[in-house]
Amino acid sequence: MNDDALFQRLTKERDVLSVSQLNARARSLLEDVFPQIWVEGELSNLARPSSGHLYFSLKDSKAQIRCAFFRQHASRVRMALSDGLQVRVRGRVSLYEGRGDYQLIVDSMESAGDGALRMAFDALKAKLQEEGLFAVERKRPLPTHPKRIGVITSPSGAAVRDIISVFGRRAPFIELVVVPTPVQGRDAAPQIVRALQLADRSGFDALIVARGGGSLEDLWPFNEEMVARALAACQTPTVSAVGHETDVSICDFIADVRAPTPSAAAELLSPDQQAMLQQVERAHRQLRQCLRDRLAREHLRLENLRRRLRHPGERLAQQAQRLDELELRLKRGMRQHLNQVGQRSERLQARLQAQHPGRHLALLRQRLDQLDQRLPRAMTQNLQHRRQRLDGLAQTLNVVSPLATLGRGYSILFDQQGKPLRSQADAKPGQRVEAQLSDGRLALRVEDNLDAPHTLPLLD
């Protein structure tokens, strides 16, 4: 019976059919007319129940058809199936009588190239890349220590829970603000754009655009051109965490940093408390080492200065030796002078004796007497002058001598190592010290280290 005769028979008969009869006849008709055909289209709504069968829709830009791919045939397919994949299938057209659904029973499948969504993805990617929106020069560094971060995602999704969990564990001091927006569906893209614009004006240190995994259709709002351009216009550093590790979206190329998962995005922006504490500890150890090195250098410098410092007793000994030398030189000079005067006197007497004039001799004798009188006075005056000078030098030396200071009632305090105490801070309560007086030493103990300074007169 040909197709035209079958349709004519059905139109002329007035039989009343039940729904089951109608679906059965329609199924027979479809299977007889389309016993084995090839159909090309894009996979969508792929389902994998535990039975091993595959159920999906095959669509193009204008229509779609439900498909069933039973386990005995589906097991022979070796390629990875996912929504958006362009495939070519072989099967028979049939009707599922229980629901009255028109469907294609598939027994073979092969790849037919990327689907329409994939083609649209690649086209937009190439367009934006040509405009330079993927350039490395546009990428901004993420803040090292952020204080306030905006999270653009669905408030009820798993992504926001993962992000909050990571920040709570690594950096609970960072403020998180969720900017709620739908992340799936036809109306999601405009609302994601509004959320990006609002978050960019809110003064966040960084933004996370996050969504959990899903099919290409589920993630498609993040492949829309309006979302990509809104993300590129953000002045705030951004992190894209859309889908799982294998998922790639246009936002991943636009954002400053791509994170494979929402949890990874949170780890990128949350400084680890333990790492920060370890860094502080390292800095503390370096500071202590620097202080020890500085103290060692200053101690060595102090030792050098101490070795160069001469004790006042050495200076006094040198002055005393100098005084003895001056005294010996004075006595030697006096003896030489007396010898010279005596020798001159003897010469004069010899000349007088040789000449022996009468009157001249008397004059000379008179002059000699005068000179003999003047000489002791001159010697006495000279000795007195030099003794006065010597006394002045001795008094000057006594004034600058520490022993004279000690004689006026002052003392010098030394610690147990014999070092003089130069400051109040050098003495500690209970410390044993020694006091040097003008006529000996006293052993003392410090009872208190008073903070208030006492003003003492410089002179008695």
From TrEMBL:
HAMAP family in the cross-refs: Exonuc_7_L (MF_00378)
Name of the molecule in the record: Exodeoxyribonuclease 7 large subunit
EC number assigned by the record: 3.1.11.6
Keyword S-adenosyl-L-methionine in annotation: no
Segments forming domain OB-fold nucleic acid binding: 17-110
Physiological role: Bidirectionally degrades single-stranded DNA into large acid-insoluble oligonucleotides, which are then degraded further into small acid-soluble oligonucleotides.
Subunit field text: Heterooligomer composed of large and small subunits.
